[in-house]
Design goal:
By secondary structure, the chain is mainly alpha-helical. Helix content is 77%, strand content 0%.
């Protein structure tokens, strides 16, 4: 079980780390999907980027994995506001508007991701 958690933590950690870095490399793409009611898109883009980098590293380390995974669950749920905004308002990401099918696939991926993070966080 520890091997599975270590491998999953490393793979997801690297993924979150890479996505977090993308917030700084291409902030415009992320700024555009921040719901307008939140205001100051750059704040949310850079803040979520920092959290994705830090928590991505955190789930790679067994000692910090449970707390980091639990924090990532909260972050992923909160970032769903941007996904919902993209769906409801046909907001393009990186110049592409997603189809309804693509939005449904993203939702399924988010549910699977949250489930895996709950497992990494030793919630079940």
């Amino acid at each position: 079980m520890n091997v599975a958690r270590n491998v999953t933590g490393a793979l997801l950690g690297l993924t979150f780390f890479w996505i977090g870095i993308q917030h700084f490399i291409n902030p415009k793409a992320f700024n555009e999907i921040v719901p307008s009611y939140l205001g100051t898109p750059a704040f949310w883009t850079y803040s979520s980027g920092v959290l994705e980098i830090a928590l991505g590293l955190g789930i790679m380390i067994p000692a910090t994995r449970p707390l980091s995974a639990r924090c990532l669950v909260v972050l992923v749920v909160l970032m769903s506001l941007a996904n919902l905004n993209m769906y409801l308002n046909d907001v393009p990401f990186n110049g592409s508007v997603l189809s309804t099918t693509a939005h449904i696939i993203r939702l399924i991926i988010q549910v699977v991701l949250i489930t895996v993070l709950l497992w990494l966080g030793s919630i079940f």
